[in-house]
Amino acid sequence: xxxxxxxxxxxxxxxxxxxxxxxxxxxxxxxxxxxxxxxxxxxxxxxxxxxxxxxxxxxxxxxxxxxxxxxxxxxxxxxxxxxxxxxxxxxxxxxxxxxxxxxxxxxxxxxxxxxxxxxxxxxxxxxxxxxxxxxxxxxxxxxxxxxxxxxxxxxxxxxxxxxxxxxxxxxxxxxxxxxxxxxx
Length: 184
Ligand SMILES: Cc1cn([C@H]2C[C@H](O)[C@@H](COP(=O)(O)OP(=O)(O)O[C@H]3O[C@@H](C)C(=O)[C@@H](O)[C@H]3O)O2)c(=O)[nH]c1=O
Description:
- The chain is mostly beta strands.
- The protein has helices at residues 32-37, 163-166; strands at residues 2-5, 12-15, 18-21, 24-27, 46-52, 57-63, 71-77, 79-86, 97-103, 109-112, 116-122, 127-133, 142-144.
- It is 5% helix and 40% strand.
- Residues 48, 50, 58-59, 61, 118-120, 131, 137, 162, 164 line the site of dtdp-4-keto-L-rhamnose.
- This is dTDP-4-dehydrorhamnose 3,5-epimerase.
């Protein structure tokens, strides 16, 4: 296991060891002691996954305080372009995004701090995106920003998007409750 920093403060990539043998693969995506050693003290409260067709875009999602959370994301089957957007006012990377390919092949786990909006595009049918979070789902706190409002080129002519995701405010319309350095 190895942890890599990104240009966005608090956003990290866990690169697990992938054990391959004649049966297939074995990948460990979370180890409490290892995270503690890297000063990531978290308690996982909920885990879930989605399965998406190719060209599905989901996002850009987050939960607002006090139900905001650290979110771990990885892809046990398939491949995505994962995108996070910094919506912490005062952050050196406020309104900037970061993208990374997550796949069953690379096993990478994205560790997303509070105050970042998250979304992805599925690059393959039957892509499984799995999450672990430090707070439970709260429908009232679950919010989003339009996926096509912050300058990221999704490279997709006909994305499959939910009505809810199309109803969100744009980045500029959204008044973010997140402040860099608060409660992180
Ligand atoms: C996220 C979530 C949704 N739901 C319900 C609400 C809805 O009826 C159905 C599908 O929800 P959504 O359309 O929000 O699913 P989806 O668009 O896949 O939501 C996910 O998107 C990505 C980008 C994330 O970052 C995740 O944290 C999560 O927000 O499941 C829960 O019951 N619990 C949950 O934790």
